[in-house]
Amino acid sequence: MAPMTEEPARWTEATVHPDMWTDPANDPRDSDGVSPDGELATLQDFLTNYRHTLRMKCEGLDPEQLARRSVPPSTMSLLGLIRHLAEVERDWRNWITDAEPLPKLYGVRDADFDLATGDQATVDAAHADLAREQAATDAALAAHPDLGERLGKDGIAVRELLVHRIEEYARHCGHADLLRERVDGRVGQ
Predict the structure, then answer these.
(1) Which of 35, 56, 80, 167 has the lowest CB atom count within 10 Å?
(2) How far, in Å, CA of 136 to CA of 165, rounded?
């Protein structure tokens, strides 16, 4: 079998540690070794860092690259991940309220991935949607600092919701690692 010729060469921007995405001095997740105090602050710090990781994996790519699918039959792309996480953030607010569920951002199921097209307007809208939905969910949870408080129809604990959010971003950052390497060969944490 002949080797694939469309594989991008692996590379990193880092010069200090070759397995890193960028040098520690340029990494927005670097806290100089100071960890947050308390469980809530720790959970919020992990969530913030995974959000930074997702943004980093998407930086420097044009709309076509962001919308590039992984491998058939998957419809997964970096742009699809951004849209999916915006949809998920919105849905998490449905978990913490007794009100009617908010409608889906992109309509039908899987439209977050299926309709992630490589044009600048779609990319701009996806980034705006994610920022807005993150801020709205963060604000809704800020009103409930007690991690043991149970919310919504199903009585989900604030702690469980925060851990689930971290898990969702962490899982999709793993996908983003592979998607980015497939697009242009860039690797690193």
Answers:
(1) 35
(2) 14
